[in-house]
Automatic annotation (TrEMBL):
Protein name, as recorded: UBC core domain-containing protein
Membrane-spanning intervals of the chain: 134-153
All copies of domain UBC core, residue ranges: 1-90
Keywords: Membrane, Transmembrane, Transmembrane helix
Superkingdom classification of source: Eukaryota
Membrane found in the keyword field: yes
Length: 154
């Protein structure tokens, strides 16, 4: 999910039976249509899951109205969907030579900031970096311990 929707947190993995969170529930008989139907139904309900957010219907409507503007500001989106850039220009009465808004950084950070605010996003990112550092240090310590045990056993 790249665009703030009010249902899923942008840039986060989703805990769904069809996602990599639950490989044991994957069914190879699922088609693209089945998966899209499942995602569509999940968008319409309010079941909590990892990667989901709870917002009011008014917030979801506001995000939906601003989604074209948000997406057109992404260079990646403009490259993949030029017809939507044309639609954006026509809706905003912009000539084809007029530039569209540009977002210089990645969509994940911008979308998260839009939904929950920069301070919270910064705090979470710092926490994730610390967590990754702890995991790396623990892995190195375990490797050193295993090598020393192996050396003493020999």
């Amino acid at each position: 999910m790249e665009t703030p929707s009010g249902r899923f947190r942008p840039g986060r993995r989703l805990c769904l039976s069809m996602s990599d969170f639950h490989p044991e529930t994957w069914n190879p008989m699922w088609s693209v249509g089945t998966i899209l139907t499942g995602l569509f139904s999940f968008m319409l309900e309010s079941t909590p899951t990892l990667g989901a957010v709870e917002t009011t219907q008014a917030e979801k409507s506001k995000l939906a109205l601003s989604s074209l503007h948000y997406n057109v500001s992404s260079p990646k989106f403009r490259g993949l969907f030029p017809s939507y850039v044309s639609k954006y220009r026509s809706l905003n009465s912009l000539p084809s030579s007029a530039s569209v808004p540009v977002r210089s950084s990645g969509t994940t950070r911008d979308a998260a900031t839009m939904l929950v605010g920069g301070d919270l996003v910064d705090a979470v990112e710092r926490g994730v970096r610390r967590y990754k550092d702890v995991i790396a240090a623990t892995g190195v310590a375990m490797l050193v311990l295993a090598v020393s045990v192996w050396a003493n056993v020999r």
